Every structure is written in structure tokens, then in C-alpha cells.
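Predict the 3D structure for this chain.
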Amino acid sequence: MLYKLKKFGCEDDFWRIRTFLRECFLSSNKRKKSWLPAELDYWRWHVNRNCFEREIDDLIWFWESDAGEIMAVMHPAGRRDAVIDIHPNYKTVKFEAEIIETALQYLSKKNDKGENILYIWSHRDDKLRNEILQSKGFERQDINTRERYYVLSNIPQIKIPKGFILRSQGSGDDVVSRSWASWTAFHPDEPDEKYEGWEWFKNLQNAPLYRRDLDVVMESPEGKVVGFATVWFDDYLRTALFEPVGIDKDFHRQGLGRALMLEGLRRSAEIGATLAIVVSEEEPAHQFYQSVGFTDYDICDAWLKSW
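Done. Predicted structure below.
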């Protein structure tokens, strides 16, 4: 089949890529062998705009057939890595190798030692990609994510500690309180003076799949947001992706995280979701999500080449 490499050029490309990712997911028997549209949204409106202060115009490449079908997409997740999503119908040794070479050309960066480096993400059971990466000098790292699944049936009863309130994300002062909870959850060892405010949350709320009724928060007896679980519902895929989930560092081990997750599962099932997904990177998160019921998972490893 003839195809050509194209660089992201207009807003229509973004929406075509979202459709492509949906097709990949369904063609992979609803296993997350590629990014989900919700992840692409989160990457564009939060990771890039808030964390890296960049737009996606120079970050996405895709391969298109002569018939105008997207066959594969490539972009970084962070600064020195590559996410490669290939439709299962086009996954061949030759095509995969070509995409990896393109990633080396466009996405590698220099480290502090002046070396070129690139991480490429690959599922542990993707024998084809892993063999190509190894042949091109990549080495598998002890860095991986676990993509966890929960079939939405028989959701356990939710238990909320006395005095706490489980509710939807509000506006106004509620955003300020939520932002502070996020800071304390994900920067527990950072001094408070490094906190940069709450304006970043407005970018997150602009993402197409964001819904306040699925942004579940936990309010303390003092009226402050101390925990959150944001759910991204895709009505076409009937999936519910959790990202992010966090608890204020002063409110750990009170059952708040479990209550938030179960409420997110309940709300998702109520509007038609059949499958929930969450990605975990560290052992405490692995254990927590498994305890909630996300026992089925795939492992995605980072492979590194330096030269």
C-alpha cells in the first residue's frame, strides 16, 4: 500500500486523529494498545499547555494512505519520548521500522552529557515492536505503566467517612480549593511557595470530553476539596478513563480515594460506560487501583536509545 508522512497542519487533523484512535481501540478488542481520545485531549489541554507551555502544531506526525485513511500517529508524551500508535491492520515489520526511524529523526533530544536520547513506549506483549527496538539499539528500561481495566458491573457500595461530602466539581472558589488539593497531592514534598495558582485548571476544563459532573471531588468537614477523581467518558467507545486521581497529603488512609473511584465508576455506568480504564506508574498506585477492583492490566515499557 502506498502512503505518505504528514505533519500536523490544521484543526481538522486533530479531530481525524481522535477518530483514528477510536478505531484502533475497537480493532484491538477494547485493549488500550494505542492512546485513547481522552488521553490526547488531556495531553493537549493540560500536559502541553500547563506543564510544557507548548502547542501541538510541531509535535504530531501521521501516516496517511492514498485513500486518505490515517494508518499511524506519532508524537511525544513528554520531552524525550515517542508514542507510536499504529492501526492493527497496518502493523508490519517494515512499516513499524520506518516509524521508529522517523521518531529517531524528529523526536530525539540531547541530554546534559550531549548525547542524543529517545524513549519509545512499547507494550510488553508487542513482540514485533520490541524485536525491532532491540535490533535498532534500544534497551528496555525499568520504567513502565500498567493500563488497568474494570468491567462496569457489581460496583461495591460506597462508604464515605463521617463529615465528608462526595460531590461534583463546582466553579468559583471551588476551583481554587481543588487546585490546592491537586498541588498537595502531587507535590507533597515541595514548599508551598512554589505553588503557581489555579489558572491551569481552566485549560483542563476546556478539553472536549471534560464534564464537571464526572469530575468527582471530596469535601472535608471544613468545606475544602481534599480529593478528586476526574473521569473522561467517551460515549462512542463507552469507556471511562480516570485521570487524574489524587488525595491531599494530609488526608491519606481514610478511604477517600476508594470512595471517589467507586463514585466515578457508578456515575460512568449510569450514563452508559461499560469499561473503565486507569493508568498507574508506581507501586503504591498499582496496589491502590488493584484494591478498588482494577485487577486486569497490560504493561507498557519504556525503551531507551542513546548515541
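Residues 165-273 form a domain with the Aminopeptidase fold (CATH 3.40.630.30).
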